[in-house]
Amino acid sequence: MQLPALQIAKREGWTVAVVDGNAHAAGRNLADTFGHVDLRDRDGLVVWANAYRQRHRLDGVFTAGTDFSTSVAYVAEQLGLPGIPFETARDASDKERMRQRFAEAGVPSTPFFAVRDEIDPSLLSSKAREIGFPVVVKPVDNMGARGVVRIDTGDRLAHAVKEARRYSGDGRVLVERFIDGPEFSIDAVVHNGEVVICGVADRDIRFPPWFIEIGHTMPTNCQPALRRELERVFSLGVRALGITSGAAKGDVFLSPHGPVIGEIAARLSGGYMSGWTYPYSSGIEPTLAAMRIALGLPPGDLVPVREYVSAERALLSIPGIVREVEGFDRARSIPGVRDVFERVVAGDRVVFPRNNVEKCGNVIASAKTRSAALEAALQAIRAIYIRLEPAVDETERFLWGNVAQEGQEPDGGGGSMHAGAFYPGIAASSVALPRIGTKSDSGSSADAQVGAQVDYCGRTLSETLSVLRHCAGFPLLSELPYDAPGRRRFWSAVARGGLQGGRFFLDTIHEDPTARERVCFA
Length: 522
Prior knowledge:
Blueprint: H1 3-11, E1 17-20, E2 33-36, H2 42-55, H3 69-79, H4 86-91, H5 95-105, E3 112-115, H6 121-131, E4 135-139, E5 149-151, H7 157-165, E6 173-177, E7 183-191, E8 194-206, E9 212-218, H8 224-241, E10 246-255, E11 258-265, H9 273-282, H10 286-294, E12 309-315, E13 320-326, H11 328-332, E14 337-342, E15 349-350, E16 361-367, H12 370-383, E17 385-388, H13 393-400, H14 445-451, H15 461-468, H16 474-479, H17 485-511, H18 513-521
Helix pairs in contact: 2-3, 5-8, 13-17, 15-17, 17-18
């Protein structure tokens, strides 16, 4: 996420000192000076910065799209550099403090309570009922939806709080009422108290009870009047937090009662928005503007110079061990695709994401129209295929649960999820499903309706089945008795894992006779 900032700084002719806890951090080669310091060690950062300043000039400190805006504010405050006060950065990083600032200023937010210590489950459920189910459980001080889950009833609440605690720096957890409605990301730079909006994007959030962003599209497709209202409420939230200089990033919902603030951070967004999709869409670089402010300079001209649409989409995998990955170069060759980010190689152990840092890659496309940008991004994701090793326990648990125990719920990786992750509308017991995508397809309207379902990357069920028909294990599937457990498990694999799940099933029964007996007949 820091690469655009580093590239811009070098382009501007600025001397760049980079500090990171990873001695091999991406972008280190762009630094004039590198310091190996844990970014959570604020005092250590101050010591390093002071030592650097004794030898060189130091005019500002900056980060984009990370958890470390408090570290930046602390260093700036200690060294007398431009920036927001450290306590303001804490208000914008600690979700409990943030909600309190919103409540004090009358900014539309959501009812909540914080859990600091161990609490009796019945009391916890009672407090949640007071604010109203469904609720969202989240750590107070993390990003990327880590540890965040929706809970609809009290019986799962205590477990969710325990899980969220693992991602919380001091163990505090927030329980807040779920906000029903579409979600938007908003970026802004702030100079002398003026909030200048730098993009409003539509977020595509899926796979409840988690909140997995499979992509965003810039600019938003909402009506201009609604967009202005979203921006107005976001700006109220920025001012309530006391952010008068630098950058601000917000997650804002359009509830049935109007805009509601989810969160606001004192930084530019992660997730490729500030550094990629907004510049592609508008021709403007908010990263440059925010860096100028961090140096004590005016932000510069922020009026868009073009009107394009940018679409970012994520590459996902079901759990397992990667056998091979293909299609990244093919994805790059698709017209309109600007960037393809690879985050998986053969031999990696992958998971089905429960947060936004567990994805296998990302694609960004841009075009003059929304439909063209979206189709280019989705086509690129469809061009990439992650093939898993067959007969791997964690993949089987995700797709089927314990195959020796009929009726056991598949393992979503630590909590229930809807029966079909990729194609939730298909039922493993449906007698019509085996005809779709085969030579015996009846062509009925019911079959066509089921086959037209699309997965997260726009691949229809019929297209998935057409590909699977040409896999080596498909004849073995066709030979199974009609009532064999293997047929049900095939459809469960496709429902929960799409093309990848179906291919895993076919590879397993084709390559491993022992696993074939267990999967098809046990």
